[in-house]
Amino acid sequence: MRLLSILFLVFAMSSHTVLAADPPPLPELRFAQIPEAARPRYNGDRFSYMEAGRKDAPPLVLLHGVGANSMHWRFQLAGLSDRYRVIAWNAPGYVLTDALRADTPTCRDYADAVADFLAALGIGRTAILANSFGARVAQCFGAHYPDRVVRMVLTGAGIGQRDLPDADRQKAVAVRQAQIGAGGYGLGARVAALLSTKASPETIALVQDVLRATNPVGFMQAVRFGLSNTYLPDFADRLTMPVLLIQGAEDRVNPTEHNAAILAKALPNARLIVLDGAGHLPEVELPGRVNELTAAFLAE
User: Fold this and answer.
1) Among residues 133, 125, 152, 121, which one has the least CA distance to residue 91?
2) Which of 134, 195, 219, 288 is most buried, judging by how many CB atoms fall within 10 Å of its CB?
3) Which phi and psi angles does 151 have, rounded to 5°?
4) pLDDT tens digits, residue range 224-247?
């Protein structure tokens, strides 16, 4: 029997959480060698990532969004590393991870990239926490490597589209090209679209710094993948592992009713939680709450 539990939990807040003046520090950047057999798919031989927690703790892999990188997960690296080996990758073409050779990577390309990353770190099965583009990558990995995923937590999830007209796709690619073409600081200017109307100045500054680290090649590869005809509900039935969807009530990038709500109905074993006081990045705006929900879900 299909198990579906959709919970719309709206947490009213009289004022938005204000980050401390000194947010938790980030771990140092680390490197792992891409397995030799996989290197023909990449323009190099290295993954870069950040890690926190005990080596012998259960692994939790963090997959960032299209304009982000491992720095995005500052609060999860700090807040979840007491019980997990928390590993935040830099996707192909991000920070100092070498890019994929394919100009328009497929769902399978990114699924294989996660598998290559796990192989480089000697990890078999893992839990996954992912945002936006990372949530799509997580679902691709879960569909192609279902036995490797224990549980998934997805935030700001989008579902893609079928048969997007070429003219619309080209227009969207051109918009994204203009965004990254303006440089890292130019990309950082779009921060308002990612956050709620109550985002604190400290939160805005942190997200801007993450956006400024984006590399054009990886960004545009991820954009082209996101605009492909990969419609995630088409293979949702293959994602039989438990999935928790966490959405910000003010997510204007991937509005819940057109994305996560549809995905939750298609997944065999899913829960949907909507948080007031957050936009597309609830793990940054409400890190304590997202960490609490994630830890509780993974412990079930």
Assistant:
1) 133
2) 134
3) -150, 160
4) 999 999 999 999 999 999 999 999
